[in-house]
Design goal:
Mean pLDDT: 86
Structural class: alpha+beta
Strand content: over 45%
Number of strands: 12
Order of helices and strands: HEEEEEEEEEEEHE
Low-confidence stretches: none
Radius of gyration: 29 Å
Length: 308
């Protein structure tokens, strides 16, 4: 009986010691975590001071998505023997020079995608990768500060496709006006004097014109999250048929080291492009700006992201 009581006492003592040790370890962990949080807050504050200093700010992030598949004797579909694949990527990059009296902001966006479908029962089909998404945009904004949030500025923006019909059409905007930066990371460009050069080959409906250019861009990084939204519109003084807008959005979340998940969404409205496409159809679905169906153009990409 004494032995049993002794074993019980030892067991209770060991449990008490373990419990006490566990609580002590938790307390030590809390103390260390508080120290780490304070150090991280100090590091973030120092980084904010560094970011506020004059000089260059550079960065880039992107999204990569893709898949492959192969079917053999899969009779429930129209092409039972086929191999298919798609791949796409998006890159958003910027290089900004921020000084006390002026700034020079440069950015670029590339979104490309290819798809293929090889029908193994049809020797005459196209089994190569063909471009599906094709977006290329670069811009350069220079400004001289008037106040802390307002600057006189000049903007050059060029956009086209590069895989198919390069510079056909291509759009080059050049204008002057003002740039407003009401909060950090938000840039609003308002240029009432802007010329929209449109490049195209052959006899097309595209036409250059004078108008107003408005751009709003918000780019930010919060921890593992990278986010960019850009809205660019040209409003022609000659005719509303020559006006257009493009709105692109990019989001990425880093999961492990530099790899994460990403999502891109683009919207565009361009009546000249809609009419040019309609005239190329057989039969033609529209013959003038009055009867063209200017549907909203969209694209999106979902996949893995890589932070450069």
């Amino acid at each position: 009986m004494k032995k049993i009581l002794l074993v019980l006492a030892l067991t209770i003592g060991l449990v008490s010691i373990n419990a006490q040790t566990k609580e002590e370890l938790k307390a030590q962990k809390s103390e260390k975590q508080a120290i780490a949080d304070a150090a991280q807050a100090e590091a973030n504050a120092l980084q904010s001071q560094i970011d506020a200093l004059p000089g260059w700010r550079k960065g880039a992030f992107g999204t990569i998505g893709g898949s492959i598949s192969e079917f053999s004797n899969w009779y429930s579909q129209g092409t039972p023997n086929n191999s298919a694949g798609n791949i796409g990527f998006t890159v958003n990059a910027f290089a900004n020079l921020i000084e006390d009296k002026f700034f020079w902001r440069n950015s670029g966006t590339v979104n490309l995608a290819w798809v293929k479908l090889d029908d193994k029962d049809n020797p005459n089909d196209d089994d190569s990768f063909n471009p599906t998404t094709d977006v290329f945009n670069i811009s350069s904004l220079y400004g001289r500060n008037i106040t802390k949030t307002l600057a006189a500025s000049a903007l050059m923006e060029y956009r086209t496709t590069i895989l198919d019909n390069f510079n056909d059409p291509g759009y080059l905007d050049f204008g002057v006006g003002a740039t407003w930066t009401p909060i950090e990371n938000l840039i609003v460009v308002i240029h009432p004097l802007n010329y929209n050069f449109v490049f195209s080959t052959g006899d097309t409906v595209f036409e250059s014109s004078l108008g107003a250019k408005i751009v709003a861009d918000y780019t930010r990084q919060i921890g593992a999250i990278n986010f960019k939204t850009n809205f660019s519109t040209f409003q022609s003084y000659k005719s509303g048929d020559y006006s257009n807008f493009t709105w692109t959005n990019s989001f990425s979340y880093t999961l492990w080291k530099m790899i994460g998940v990403g999502f891109d969404l683009g919207l565009r409205s361009n009546k000249q492009e809609a009419l040019n496409y309609s005239l190329a159809q057989t039969p033609q679905t529209a013959t003038s700006f009055d009867d063209v169906d200017n549907k909203l153009q969209t694209y999106y990409t979902v996949g893995l992201s890589y932070k450069f």
